[in-house]
Structures are given as structure tokens and as C-alpha cells.
Hints:
With 356 residues, this protein is of the alpha+beta class.
Amino acid sequence: MKKMISHLTALCACALAVIFFASCFALPVEEEVLPPPVIKAKNVRDYRTTTVVRGDVVRYTTTRANYRPRKEESHYFTVNDELIHAIYVNVGDTVNEGDILAEIDMTYVNNEIKKVEQDLAWARMTMAQLEERHAIDILEADITGRPVDDSVFSSQKDVILSSIESALEKLEKLDEEVEKRILRARIGGTVTRAMVYDHGMRSTTRQTNNRPFVVITDQTSAVFEVSMGMLTHEDFDPDIIYYIDVQWEPHAARIVSPDDIEISNPDPNRIYMILVGEDMPAVGENVFAQLKLVHSEVNDVLTIPRIALKQLEERTFVYVIENGLRTVHDIEVGLVGTINVEILSGLNEGDIVIME
Length: 356
């Protein structure tokens, strides 16, 4: 009996142990705790920065300047729908007054001239023969004493002279026709526009086509018409030398009256300037030019780009890199230029300023 109780006790103990360990696996499992997220601070080297330097600060306005030739001639043919033989000039060529620019085909006219010249030569030869025979008749009359009948000679001479006069008139008209087919330069200057020859192209006149065959411009002096924009006439001083950037190269210029340079149809709301330098740039209707009008300027001062400047209400400041950290510096500025600003206090030369 005691042995049976002992077995039962051992069996109960085993059952309790199984239940205990099974209950441990049924408990909730704690999840792994992840490390806190790390926010990487912006590296100082990632900023776009500039250095405080000494330089000039300029406040200026730029405005478009359009080229206006003092003298320009558009060249058209005076006969229409004739086959073009050749165009002899290209844009940029220099020509003199009277130079041939282009020609209409001369085949028909040249053939007519050749025919009339042959008729003229024949008439003159016939006249020479008639006069020679008449001279012989006069000589024979002197020897024989018989009178000479001049009526036949005079009649034939009148016919031949009429033929010669008619031929000369035809040649004169044909010469005029040749000139109509030749396009000559009416002024000396630079070719600023020229049609490109194409086989089969035909002539046009000013009445049939507004597009000229050749445009010649007198470029001995260059005049520019300045757009006012937000400017007024009071912003300009006729006694000051200005600078116009022509194809991004500065050239000295002065203000002139449109009457002094004979500009046609001047605009009273614009300013006219003429370049005064010795080296004239290549100019034309498609040339880019702009005037830089300086309002104020300071030289050899501490300066930073205008984009780096920060303002909050009445506070003016910039961000400066110091010991690898971004710090705020309150500053006092002088002239605020178009691109950069003058620093009066708050920064030293060589300071690294953030431009964002």
C-alpha cells in the first residue's frame, strides 16, 4: 500500500512538472527593442558657401540697346520675274558704291546687242563704200568735165544714216536694259543681308516682294537705340561716357540727338547713343547689345553676394561657418548692389558665409 502511494505521488509530481513547463511556453514573447533612429545632421561641407573678400560693389540697371544704322540701303531689281544669273556678295562683305551685287541672266539682251552691233557695222561699211564711190564720181567729173548727179548719193546716204541712227538708239536702250539687270551698290558699306543664290530663282521688285535682295549698311559709326524700361530721361547725363556691351564686349558710347545723326523716325521715348571707340564691332540687326547704367558704386570694400543676405523684420544677418558649426552673425550693410553688397560690420575678410 505504501509502495502504491509512493508511485502515485511520483506520478503527480511529474504531471505538475509537465504542466509548469508547458505554461512557460504559453507566455507572450517580448519583441527585440530596435535602436532609436539616428538623424544625420547636414555636413558643413554640403552647404554652398562663399568667402568674404574685398572688392567693388555696383548698383546698376541693364537695358536692351538696338542697333540703328545711320545710313542703310535696301537693294531691289527694277524688273520682275527674270531669271537670276548670280549673286556676288555675302553677309559681312565690304562693298564700294557702284560695285555689282547681283545680275539677271543676260542671254537674250546680249544676243540682241550682238545683232544690232552687226547691223550697225554693216550700215557703217555701206556708208563708207557709198562715200568712196561718190568721191570717185567727183574725181571723174573733174577730169571729164561732166556734172555729178548728187541726188542718188544723197538719197542713199539718208537711208544709211537713218539705219545707223536707229541702231545707235537700239544700243542705247539695250544698254539701259543691261543696267536694269545689274544690281549695283548705291552706297559703300557692309553687306548686312543678302539672298543666297538658288538655281532657278527669279527677280522681284520692291512692289512684288518687300524682301530686298541685298542690304548695305554704313558701319563707319554705330548708333544704338536704348530701351527705357523703368528708366527715365533724368537717369541719363549727356556729358557722361557710357558703355554698351556689343556681343558681350564693352564699347564706349555717348548720348546724341537723333537730329545730329539723321536717324529716320526717331522714338522720343528712347535714348540714342553712338559708339566713340576706335575699334568698331561688327554690327547688324541681329547683334545683341545692352547698356549697363551705373547708379552708384563703392570700391575696395568688404563684400559678399547679395544672395547670402538674410533679413527678418529689422534684423540683417548671415550664416557663417565657424569651427565646423553654422552660426548666425548680425551684420551692418552699406551699398546694396545688383549682385553683391557692401559689409560695414559683423564680418571679417576670409569668413566663410553660407549662400542658402
